[in-house]
Amino acid sequence: MEAAERLSSRPIFGWTDPGKRMMNGTAVSLIFLVTGILLGSTLGLSETKEEDPAEQRELCDNVVLEFDFDMTFTATERRLVCGSPGVQSWENIPLRQAQFHMMNFLAARGYHDPEFRVVDNKLYVKPGLPTLIKSLRLVPEIPELEVQNFWLPRGRPLNPDELNAIEQWASAKLGREGYPCASVQTRGDPKTGEVEILIDKGPLWTIKEIESNPIPGVRGGMLDRYRAFDIGDRYNSMLLDISAERLKASEVVVNANYRPNCKGEPGVVEQRTLAGKPRLVSFGIGFDSENLFLIRAGWRNSRWSETASMLDVSATASYHQQKFLTTFDWYYLPVPSHHYLKTYARVQREFEKRYEARSIKASMAPAFAGDIWGIRGDIYLGPSLLFENTIRGEGPANARLLTVDVGIAGQSHPYEYFNYLAAPQSGYEFSLFASTSDKGVASNVSATTYTLDFTRLWNLLSLEPEIWIFGIRGSFATTRAGRDTNYNDLPPSFKYALGGSEDLRGFGRKALPTEGSGALTKAYLGSELRLNNSLPYHLQPFVFADWGKLGQKALDLDPTLFWSPGLGVRWGSPIGVLRFMLGHGFVSGEGQEQYKELEALQFYASIGEQF
Questions:
Q1: Which end of the chain has less Cβ packing within 10 Å, N or C?
Q2: What is the DSSP secondary-structure string of 421-477?
Q3: CB burial readout 98-108, b (16+ within 10 A) else e
Q4: By C-alpha distance, which of 135, 200, 136 is closest to 174?
Q5: How far apart are CA 531 and CA 567, in angstroms?
Q6: DSSP H or E stretch at residue 280
Q7: Contacts of 421 (CB under 8 A, 6+ apart)
Q8: Phi and psi for 143 in degrees, rounded to 5?
């Protein structure tokens, strides 16, 4: 449906592409003449000698604009209204034809009740007030679309661009509900500002088949492991988008997308991929006030074998940490599978205020990654070998640990989807890790560690797009020393600290505790309320509050409470994401006196990606 035809209760006018109206010759002049005669009564053009005291500016010699704000017109629009000097058939535009085009141009900007008058062979244009969108109504009513939460168009000018945006929103919502081939049209009333969304849902889809193009060097079906859906599931465009983003993030392909074949049998989805080269070199740089600089370089072969096994080599460097990491995810089965062998080797140096340590760790573990209950999960279990040397601070000069590690991580599909869009607003993620070693079994330290991290986000009021986002994040970690092992025998990586941008934002980086190389137990909970889609330049202000405790024994927390309120702002600038935070640390409870000097303002700034 053409855009102008969707604006009801108006004198009929056509919405056409101005570029298609550029014709030459006498035929054009005749058309203008006939059109002008017909439009004389339809458009209410009148000849008058009265002058209007309103502010005026000339668009050209024969067209005068009467309003006190700046309205710009494109070069093509000016030619259609004012003519094109040097082109015989377009040099002089009849005033009635100029009025006809001007009505279309004003309607495209939301002005549907303009006034026109002619004085001394000049066309005077007064656009009047714009028609604003007051309400949206679905025809028929579809409660699951929750149109009442779609606030963005309300209060905006009623024009074709806004109507197109409304149609795109409705189509996307229907795609998530299982109707990828729905027909959506809009009809706006320029008198009331009401927009009707006319919907024909079409058939409800169940995914029956995925038609895909082959990937060079990869067996058919091997990339099915990246799908967030199964054959036989109800169609959900969000899950298909997640699947495409997983493929791109793995760098097995350069680009990927899923499209429903609406012209064929319902349930057939086309998967289109662009393979590119299997090897990729990457480089990134950033800055923050804690680490000073952040540099990352990497090399990846995402199609190491016919099963699309992946080899990744990367190096990261900042003031406090330097790390070289090699990982290899080997999909060893010759058939499509979610099982793989997870291996990695890491060389790392940590340079903190209270200690300096160097370590080498290697691990090999069977792993499984897949989707269940709306969660993308990853689980592994296997041995690892760690060598860690404490160069400065409390800790053993040489620690050697042969450990058994188990890790479980997951994130909900909404959390994953909005993270891919760089607009986190709902869902959750979590990770659990446990490790144990026994002194005497290739280890000179006995220790068991447990770690839990989580994040949960809510789109308050369920508005679209989001305005208020509330989130919590937290962590709990503890280390229990085993037989013939005491606190001083544990290397720094088995102890914990609080403070900095990752947890207690009102304290300096790893400022707590003030003595020793770290605590044996830590607990942290942070909350944040962010304002989105409301301020110019996409500025996103937020307020936060963090709480934390430490303990010098396993599974035991001291009574001292550390907490820090604060505020900040995030801005997606052309050169990268800028973040600024200001927090103040406070200490309460037993033992607070020894931390009084740490109660101060802390400022944090960053630019670029956080690796």
A1: N
A2: TT---SEEEEEEEEEEE-TTSS-S--EEEEEEEEEEEEEGGG-BS--EEEEEEEEEE
A3: bbbbbbbbbbb
A4: 200
A5: 12
A6: strand 279-288
A7: none
A8: -55, -35
**Cβ partners under 8 Å of residue 115, min gap 6:** 125, 126, 128
In terms of Cα–Cα distance, which of 191, 34, 44 is closest to 126? 44
Q: How far is the C-alpha of 220 from the C-alpha of 453, rounded, in Å? A: 37
C-alpha dist (Å) from residue 227 to 174, 367, 400: 20, 17, 40
- Residue pair 380/407 in contact (Cβ under 8 Å)? The answer is yes
Per residue in 177-225, pLDDT (tens digit) is 999 999 999 999 999 999 999 999 999 999 999 999 999 999 999 999 9
Helices in 214-323 by DSSP H: which ranges? 237-250
Which pLDDT score is estimated for 5?
Answer: 39
Q: What's the token pair of residue 557?
A: 């927390």
pTM value is: 0.85
User: Which DSSP state fits 591?
Assistant: T
Q: What's CA 445's distance to the chain center, in Å? A: 44
How many angstroms separate the Cα of 485 from the Cα of each of 251, 354, 482, 488? 44, 22, 6, 8
Residue 233 CA from chain centroid, whole number: 25
Straight-line distance from the first to the last Cα atom of the chain, in angstroms, rounded to the nearest whole number: 47
Q: Which helix (H) or strand (E) holds 77?
A: helix 75-82
**H helices present in 177-295, as ranges:** 237-250
Is the CB of residue 542 less than 8 Å from the CB of residue 573? Answer: no
43, 83, 94, 217, 301 from 13: Cα distances, Å:
10, 20, 17, 57, 58
Q: What share of the chain is helix, strand, coil (3-state, %, to 5)?
A: 20, 40, 40
Asked if residue 222 lies in contact with residue 271, where contact means CB atoms within 8 angstroms, the answer is no
CA distance 460 to 442: 52
The string of pLDDT tens digits covering residues 402-444 is: 999 999 999 999 999 999 888 889 999 999 999 999 998 899 9
Which value, to the nearest 10 degrees, does the dihedral of the CA atoms of residues 112, 117, 122, 128 take? -40
Rg (CA), the chain: 32
Strand order in the sheet with 122-126: 57-60, 63-65, 122-126, 115-119
Residue among 141, 146, 160 nearest 199 (CA): 141
- Residue in 414, 412, 420 with CA at minimum distance from that of residue 372: 412
Backbone torsion region of residue 213, taken as left when φ is above 0, otherwise alpha when ψ lies between -120 and 50, otherwise beta: beta
Pairwise CA distance, residues 593 & 590, whole Å = 8
Is residue 517 very low, low, confident or very high in pLDDT (cuts 50, 70, 90)? confident
Crossing angle of helices 160-176 and 237-250, rounded to 10°: 90
DSSP state of 189: -
Is pLDDT of 576 > 90?
A: no
Q: Is 165 helix (H, G, I), strand (E, B) or coil?
A: helix
Q: Look at residues 202, 220, 178 and name the one whose alpha carbon lies nearest to residue 306.
A: 220
Residue with tokens 């830590």: 522
What's the pLDDT score for residue 54? 53
